[in-house]
Write a structure and sequence with these properties.
By secondary structure, the protein is an alpha/beta fold. The chain folds into 2 domains: 110 residues, no CATH class; 192 residues, Alpha-Beta Complex (Nucleoside Triphosphate Pyrophosphohydrolase), CATH 3.90.79. The strands form 5 sheets. It has a 4-stranded mixed sheet. A hairpin with a 2-residue loop joins strand 6 and strand 7. Helix 1 packs antiparallel against helix 2 and helix 1 packs parallel to helix 3. The longest helix is centred in the N-terminal third of the chain and has 16 residues. The radius of gyration is 29 Å and the shape is globular. The relative contact order is 0.13.
Length: 319
């Protein structure tokens, strides 16, 4: 731990001695902190690293403790400060660890929230399976409208005039290939890349609409397996301020009436599944290292997916 000391002038430079086994020693000419301070600091830092005690709380405790005069230090004050640091540990159920736990089972380190109030590490582990575990087939082509950019803008304006804000959903589906996570993307006309998903119907919920789109583009016709898609948390939202600009990962403060909102959801795959793709679409597995910040090829939404997934630890499960 770094302890503040008085500044030393050029004529009062500390002497440095090198011992055979103890390493460099710096003598400053002033007394260092009492050994009780250093013992408690070490104890507090060890408890912080081993548990979920916030480092900001630890710093406040140490600042208060080191401001105490050494003459007033005793074993009782050290024990009281140590008890204070332990009592600040709180489990995910809101009970003090040194008190009575509200749960029937004792609290564990994995169950305690971190300094930011988050959950344990288990909730941030994403199981992914090899690409070879899945079957891929084809079905009849989907009907796509041949339209220019001007036609698309006019269509969005007509939709906005009739229904207001347009909401789109996209599925983030990750598989393993060559021991690296890959993202499943749909390629349209051998040029445009899209996440599986699409536009919601007026009044349709995000999850149900995404399941409908996944079944339409990745399942056999009439399979009726909408409930088999495990739609997880929303990873991010993108906003289109007007009809022609690219989407932003935030809503600009000067925009009061955005024209489109795109929501990305994590979709977890089972150990095996059949993907039935329309003939005029290509389902590709693209490595995250190739997608990362590659705006020119994949656009801002897809290029930002690796950053959204950075909070997860990938657990590759070999089948």
């Amino acid at each position: 731990m770094r302890v503040p000391r008085e500044s030393v002038g050029p004529d009062e430079a500390p002497e440095m001695e090198f011992g055979a086994s103890t390493g460099p020693k710096i003598e400053t000419g002033r007394e260092g902190p009492p050994i009780q301070h250093l013992q408690f600091a070490r104890q507090l830092l060890e408890s912080t690293a081993a548990t979920s005690l916030s480092f900001s709380v630890s710093r406040r405790i140490l600042k208060l403790f080191f401001s105490t005069p050494s003459s007033s230090l005793n074993s009782s004050s050290i024990n009281d400060s140590a008890s204070l640091s332990v009592s600040l540990l709180v489990c995910s159920r809101g009970c003090s660890i040194v008190g009575k736990c509200k749960a029937t089972l004792p609290c564990t380190i994995a169950q305690r929230g971190g300094g930011g109030g988050g959950g344990g590490d288990q909730s941030r582990v994403l199981d992914i399976y090899p690409l070879s575990s899945y079957y891929f087939g084809s079905k009849d082509a989907l009907a796509f409208k041949e339209e220019t950019l001007a036609d698309r803008v006019n269509r969005m304006k007509s939709h906005y005039a009739a229904h207001g804000l347009r909401t789109c959903v996209g599925a983030v589906i990750v598989v393993e290939l060559f021991r690296h996570p890959h993202l499943l993307l749909l390629q349209v006309r051998n040029s445009t890349f899209k996440l599986p998903g699409g536009r919601l119907r007026p009044g349709e919920s995000d999850v149900e609409g995404l399941k409908r789109k996944l079944t339409s583009k990745l399942s056999a016709d009439g399979a009726g397996d909408e409930t088999q898609w495990e739609v997880g948390e929303c990873l991010g939202m993108w906003w289109r301020p007007d009809f022609e600009t690219l989407p932003y990962p935030y809503l600009p403060p000067n925009v009061k009436k955005p024209k489109e909102c795109t929501k990305l959801f994590l979709v977890k795959l089972p150990v095996s599944r059949k993907f039935i793709v329309p003939k005029n679409l290509k389902l590709l597995a693209v490595p995250l290292c190739q997608i990362h910040e590659n705006l020119k090829t994949y656009g801002p939404v897809i290029a930002g997916v690796p950053q959204l997934l950075s909070k997860f630890s990938f657990n590759i499960i070999d089948s």
